[in-house]
Write a structure and sequence with these properties.
Helix content is 20%, strand content 32%. A hairpin with a 7-residue loop joins strand 6 and strand 7. The mean pLDDT is 91.
């Protein structure tokens, strides 16, 4: 049976801290639903009503576009070990980019990752837990270092040229990009 909470509590924080992967879902009117897996120890609970995750440049920037257009975001964590549990965070999100005033304070909460593009801050509307009995048992063999290694081989200028020049999502929604500072 699903249970709803108005805020993140200590049990939720402990569960989140143990999960090596989470999923991010966003949508905007007239656009495809975006659902992305995330890892690399990049999720943080900032307080009982606020969470954030560090975003590394990849194949697109749909979350940025969807949050600018609509703001709704859902984060899902699944336990792949015992006890079974699914935890969803429903909220409103926004992108914080390196040129924004709150960037430094937020960035200090995360491990330094090459290719870091933005931090998504989530204002928590509600938290839901459910049984997770249909989720299989799986074990983490190791983190995948491919994205980290890929970005580490490129200079800051190369990363910026490739990933920060996108002006729109795959559905044509505008994307707010980091500003390059030389």
């Amino acid at each position: 049976m699903a249970e709803f909470f108005d805020a993140l509590n200590d049990n939720h924080r402990a569960f989140i801290a143990r999960q090596p992967v989470f999923f991010v879902a966003t949508a905007a009117d007239g656009a495809r639903i975006n659902l992305s897996p995330k890892g690399m120890d990049c999720f943080r609970v900032l307080d009982d009503r606020t969470a954030a995750y560090l975003d590394v440049a990849g194949s697109g920037n749909e979350t940025n576009a969807h949050l600018a257009a609509d703001g709704r975001i859902t984060i899902m964590f699944c336990a792949f070990e015992n006890p079974a549990l699914i935890l969803r965070i429903y909220g409103r999100g926004r992108a914080v980019l390196p040129q924004d005033g709150e960037w430094t304070a937020l960035c200090d909460r995360f491990p330094p990752l090459p290719g870091t593009r933005q931090i998504f801050v989530i204002d928590v509307d509600s938290v839901q837990t459910s049984c997770g009995w249909g989720v299989p048992h799986m074990q983490l063999a190791r983190e995948r270092d491919t994205l980290r290694t890929y970005h580490a081989r490129q200079s800051e200028a190369e990363r910026f040229a490739k990933y920060a020049v996108r002006t729109a999502s795959i559905d044509g929604l505008p994307v707010r990009n980091p500003q390059r500072v030389d």
